[in-house]
Amino acid sequence: MPLLLTLIGILTLVLLVAFVRLDTFISFVLVSLGIGLASGMSVQEVGKSIQTGIGGTLGDLVLIIGFGAMLGRIVAESGAARRITDVLIQLFGIKHIRWGLALAGFVVGIPLFYNAGFIIVVPLIFTIAASSRLPLLSVAVPMLSALSVAHGYLPPHPSPSAVAAQLNANIGQTLLYGLIVAIPAIVIAGPIFGKTLVNLKVTPDKDLFDTGDVPTAKPSFTEASGQRLPGTGISFFVALLPVLLLTTFGPLKGALPDTSPLKTIVTLLAEPYIGMLLSVLTAMYALGIRRGQSMKAITKDMEEAVKAIAPILLVIAGAGALKQIFTDSGTSKYIGSLLADASIPPLVLAWGIAAFIRVCVGSATVAGLTTSGIIAPLIQSQTIKPELMVLAIGSGSLMFSHINDGGFWLFKEYFNLTIMQTIRTWSVMETIVSIVGLLGVLALNLVV
């Protein structure tokens, strides 16, 4: 019965989100209510479970995602993202431009959420394609594949951060392993796959392509005031500071003895939300105040960034409620006992469940968070590193984006493609990212 209720719940969630088009948060709450009551929980127990799930899931995750959004906005608005991209493109030259774009997309994609990153880099893609005379899609795919990988694999992006929190995975280790797995995924789905698209002719909007008049974020204060873009060193340093802090102080905390006078400081700096806070403060000064922007303007930008992530936080909250219902109703324990005896390797199983939900629902975030609630018992019953499980789920959540995914339509409309062209390019790229990500996780599982 618990397994049947779970299947009905997932199918109902798919129906509500993908076909009824009901708000995702409301859909999660309704499905949580239904599964809880059908499992024999009282109304009071269901209500308490939902509240506990929402509060427990958000917790310090609000800080990580909130600070991440603020950092991304400052990096974008200051012109640092543009500086990073320009430098990498100049470094690689026209001959190896696809590799430069892939690296630029990855560096920019670490602090920026996917949609914001997409809007920032699209004008650059059009400009580079026009100046280099390279086919547009062969230039676009390397950069956008890197953005997609960062979105699906790496904290502080919402889905991997939330899945890591639900599975009690170490954020720093997840980021470190994610960087390792990301390299082959970007290489294959980006420059290598992008090169196969050189003969695919597309006719984007002439106004967009010829003039570069692509809808984008509001002009940065540097551009508006005629000031120069930030320097190369400070742009890279601020964008990569969360990576440096999360991957340095996490391992260092475990290496220091408890008697060390540095233990308290290192332990504090190893907290993901502290690392993100320091990164935001650094960005505010180095990319804002130091370059003449007022604190009022910086604060306004950060407020807008937080507003933009509110819907994402609600989705995460709803997924937390569903996970808690699975736990309190005994469904997770029952499913865990079944999955523990399954012949499918746990990492492959997690990837497959996430991929299935992704194809049905379209949202990578919903796919990742729903899967983590189902697969959580495996972390206790088997010796699987939770950090690798996060990456397996993240890879699966990117599988075959198609017409029910907003990213699919964003790509289609900006590049003026037919649906079949979009499937041949965007959907295939996302599928490559997903499959190569799984293979990378399985390979990493053999050595860590």
Automatic annotation (TrEMBL):
Family: Belongs to the GntP permease family.
Molecular function GO labels: gluconate transmembrane transporter activity
Intracellular or extracellular location(s): Cell membrane
UniProt keywords, alphabetically: Cell membrane, Membrane, Transmembrane, Transmembrane helix, Transport
Species whose genome carries this gene: Spirosoma agri
Gene Ontology CC annotation, any one: plasma membrane
InterPro entries: Glcn_transporter
Transmembrane segments: 28-46, 58-76, 96-122, 134-154, 174-193, 234-252, 264-287, 308-327, 347-376, 388-411, 423-447
Top-level taxon of the source organism: Bacteria
Protein's membrane topology: Multi-pass membrane protein
Name under which the protein is recorded: Gluconate transporter
